[in-house]
């Protein structure tokens, strides 16, 4: 069972993001405030759950929690400010939308940009340790997956339904064959390191 809270007797928001390592699509982040002493043995790091389980849990989370929100940063913004800053911005946008103002923030990972004047703590593998971060990871992942599935209808050749924009062989092969879309992150190494620049001269 994951921990319910890090900060004692404070309204705490857990944050996590999805899509940081993708070649295409926006980065999504979620912020979640749980009720005090909340328990849910099914909540865990979204990467350890099946798609069906994540979707069922999303409905449960949205029903159970005190407040939740999703923040989005577009591929154009990612190219302008880099993915690390974009991840922080997506989390800040999620926090901005919460209908209850948090008094502290806990974040999956080891880096974060302070949000307003709130105390915060970064927790490595936090989505497997704290319920609110696990809930945020499920919301961020499922909303981003829905978005990539919708984009896949528009651009089926990149297999986004299967890879969600991550750098699979099939995705990179499609970039090589068809070029890039408006949703690709141009600041990324889209073809993989050195794949097209190998020059074997004697």
UniProtKB/TrEMBL annotation:
Amino acids binding a divalent metal cation: 16-17, 108
CDD domains from the UniProt entry: RNase_HII_bacteria_HII_like (cd07182)
Subcellular location: Cytoplasm
GO MF term set: RNA-DNA hybrid ribonuclease activity
Cofactor(s) needed: Mg(2+); Mn(2+)
Enzyme Commission number(s) from the entry: 3.1.26.4
Xref: InterPro entries: RNase_HII, RNase_HII/HIII, RNase_HII/HIII_dom, RNaseH-like_sf, RNaseH_sf
Cited function: Endonuclease that specifically degrades the RNA of RNA-DNA hybrids.
NCBIfam families on file: PRK00015.1-3
Protein known as: Ribonuclease HII
């Amino acid at each position: 069972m994951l921990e319910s809270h890090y900060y004692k007797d404070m309204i705490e928001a857990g944050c996590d993001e999805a899509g940081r390592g993708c070649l295409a699509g926006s980065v999504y982040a979620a912020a979640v405030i749980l009720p005090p002493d909340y328990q849910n043995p099914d909540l865990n790091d979204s990467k350890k759950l099946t798609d069906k389980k994540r979707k069922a849990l999303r409905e449960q989370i949205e029903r159970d929690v005190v407040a939740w929100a999703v923040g989005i940063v577009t591929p154009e913004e990612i190219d302008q400010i880099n993915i690390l800053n974009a991840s922080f911005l997506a989390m800040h946008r999620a926090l901005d939308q919460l209908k209850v103002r948090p008094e502290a923030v806990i974040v999956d990972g080891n880096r974060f940009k302070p949000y307003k004047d709130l105390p915060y703590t970064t927790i490595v593998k936090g989505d497997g340790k704290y319920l609110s971060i696990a809930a945020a990871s499920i919301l961020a992942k499922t909303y981003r997956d829905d978005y990539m599935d919708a984009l896949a209808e528009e651009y089926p050749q990149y297999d986004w339904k299967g890879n969600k924009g991550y750098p699979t062989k099939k995705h990179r092969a499609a970039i090589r064959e068809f070029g890039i879309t408006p949703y690709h992150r141009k600041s990324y190494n889209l073809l993989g390191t050195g794949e097209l620049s190998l020059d074997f001269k004697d």
